[in-house]
Structures are given as C-alpha cells and as structure tokens.
Amino acid sequence: MTNLLAARTQMALSLGFHIIFAEIGIAMPVLMLLAEWRWRRSGGLDDEYLQLAKRWAKGSAILFAVGAVSGTVLSFELGLLWPGFMQFAGPIVGMPFSLEGFAFFTEAIFLGVYLYAWGRISARAHLAAGVIVAVSGAASAVFVVMVNAWMNSPTGLLMSGGRITHIDPIAGMLNPSTLQQALHMLLASYAATGLAVAGIHAAMLLRRRDAVFHRHALGLALLVGAPAAVLQPLSGDLSARTVAMWQPVKLAALEGQFDTEQGAPLRIGGWPDVAARQTKYALEIPHGLSLLAFHDWNAEVRGLTAFDPSDWPPVAPVHVGFQIMVALGTLMALVSLWAAWVALRGRRFAEHTALLRALAIVTPFGFVATEAGWTVTEVGRQPWVVQGILRTSDAVTPMPGLVVPMIVFALLYVGLSAIVVATIAGLVRETR
Is the pTM of this model over 0.90? Predict the structure, then answer.
C-alpha cells in the first residue's frame, strides 16, 4: 500500500466513524429538549416525557464523549498525515477551526449543566441550557463544514508563486459552497437521527402497541426527522447547482456523464465503464441533468472527456455513492410524507402497522446515506485536496509506515463502536 493510499484510507476511516457521532450530537439535544418541553407543558404530570428527556440526555452524553475522542483523533491526523495541507491552508482554516473549538466547549459545558442540574436550577434556566447545547452543536458542525466547503470552492485568498500572499478569512468561511453544504449537513443530521430514533421506537411498538413511552418517543422523533427528510431533496438541488458551477468534473463523475452534451440526461442507476467512456445499464431521463443542475432544459453539461484524465476522480465510487445517497434519501422522504399523511388524518402512528414496519426498515438509511454522501464529496474532489490549487499527493506526509497506525485506529474504532452499541442497547432495553 502506498503512502498516499494509506493516509487517505486512515482519514476515510476516521471521518466515516466520526461523522455518525457528529450527526447524532447535532440532533439528539433537540430531541431531549423537546421531551423536556412537553413534560413541562403537561405541568409535570406526564412522567413519560420526563423519562424520555433524561434517557435521551444520557444517550447524548455517551455519544458526545465518543465523538470528542474521534474528533480529537481527526485533529491530530490533519497535522500528522497532511502537513502540506495545514502549511498551505492554515491561515484560512484556522479561524473556523478555532470557532468550532469554542462551540464544542460551550456544548460540553452546558451539556454538563443540563445533565446534573435537574431540580437545582429553575425550569427556564434548565431549558435554556438545553437550547445552548442544541445551538452550539449545530454551530460546531457549521464551522467544520465551512472548512470542507472552502476546500471545494476556495475563495478569500490571493496567490503568487504557488503560495498564499493575501487572505480574507471571512470570505474563505463564506465561500460559495458554505450555505449549501451547511444546510445539507444539518438537514441530514436531523433526518438521519430523527428517523433512526423513530425506527427504534416503531420496532418497539410493533411488539407492544400500548407502550406510552414509545408512542411519545416516536411522535417527537418524527417531529424532528420527518420535516428534515422532506426538505433534504430541496437542499440537494441547491448542492447540485453549486457543484455544477465550481466542480464540473465532480458533477460529470457523480452523474456518469462522459461526453459534453446539451440537454444532458439524468441517470438513475448504471455502472460507469471508464474504458468504454459510457455509463451502462442506467435509466436515463432526457434533459433531466441539465434541468436540475442549471434550471435550463437545454443547458450544456461538460462531460469527463472535456477534462484531463489526470484530473478525473474515481468515477465508479463517486457515481455509485451518489446513487445510494439519492435512493435512500428519497425513500426516507417518502416514508416521512406517509407519516405526515397519517398524522393529518388524525390516526395514531401505533395503530398503523405498515407505517411502523416502514419506519423500522429505514432506521439505518440516514447514516448510510451520509456515508455515501461524504464519499461523493471527498472522493469526488480528488485528485485535489483544495480544488484546483493543491493536489492531495502534494499535501500528504512523507513519513513511511502508515499502514500500522491505520490498522491500530481501525481497531480503536471497532472497539469504540462495540462499546457504544452495547451501552445504547442497554438504555433501550430499560424502556421495554
């Protein structure tokens, strides 16, 4: 295994592990806050909501701790594995990373207040602590996404001789990809976590329809997850147009578009054959890609052959990852619309067996879609670590022997995953 491949694999493992806990850390505080709010609205009479708030707060704390560990690992890996990137981009990415640190510590402090101040501070102050946890968790994600967005559409810098001579960190943070990536990430977090929690409690209701605890939990989880899942395709449309403008070669790869074409079709499924320069077995919707990417029925879409092959990302992983993300996201949105229809008809979710089964099935879909989406984002930018400016091969460390730490960290993540699954399973079993 080459040094570059080992470094990329280790970073992929770390990011793939951390992103799940980051998503849950964004959405779970909203769930615990809603549960406490509903309990206080009941005048303290509905203890099921109180149990939910405390149970979800415990889960948030566990997952926050694991996320902090994996996030710390990532911060070290950036410096150790990618010194060329940090030397080049440090003046730009330093500010959002610092702001993320402030948001992280704010979240940690007020999560502690929320967990240990039940009955010790006023109801209003306790709810305020929960609000701060939820807001700072979302802010932390936005600041990190600003860095990744800048890597996709670098702005706020002037260069001479391959070096940055002038920086505008605010312009770098507010680059053209920031809005769409931040919105897409936040919606993904609420949709994935909300529907995963809903799916767990739906499975419990399939066993015991009279469990009030699980009925309450399902309703609150859908209140968070369903709207986000329905809105996610709209943010995807915004993302497609940004990618079309700033990363046309990525757009060509994720759609399997080899030839430049006016009125390019939208492909569903298929397998890109790089040697034959065509995507086989795909269902093509005429003019669909031009319409989605440019809002123009006959807009020209540049294909992969319009670019130097040395600038192509790995086409098959990007295309397949994109198809998986879209397919799972679409299914989540449809199930969410189904749940909304049932609610509008005044029926209880627990009485609708087919919906409960569908929710149980889509439980992992949001997290799988997230992994696929980040594959599209990161692999689709290759061979660049900063689009059009710094190649990944120029940013990697020259230090040999990266296979050993890669294996060690993989084992660390497997161990942490086992601990988390066992702990969360214990919390769920307590509510049967």
Answer: yes
Residues in CB range of 183: below 8 A, 6 or more apart: 235, 238
**Rounded Cα gap, residues 356 and 34, in angstroms:** 22
pLDDT digits (tens, 9 = 90+) for 159-202: 877 777 788 989 999 999 999 999 999 999 999 999 999 999 99
For the record, the structure tokens of 114 come out as 């929320």
Q: Dihedral of CA 196/198/203/204: which sign?
A: positive
Residue type, 153: S
End-to-end Cα spacing for the chain: 48
Distance of CA 293 to the CA centre of its chain: 22
Q: Distance between CA 9 and CA 7 in Å, rounded?
A: 5
Per residue in 308-317, pLDDT (tens digit) is 999 999 999 9
Rounded distance between C-alpha atoms, residue 379 and residue 304, angstroms: 15
Contacts of 308 (CB under 8 A, 6+ apart): none
pLDDT, position 287: 92
Are the C-beta atoms of residues 328 and 365 closer than 8 Å to each other? yes
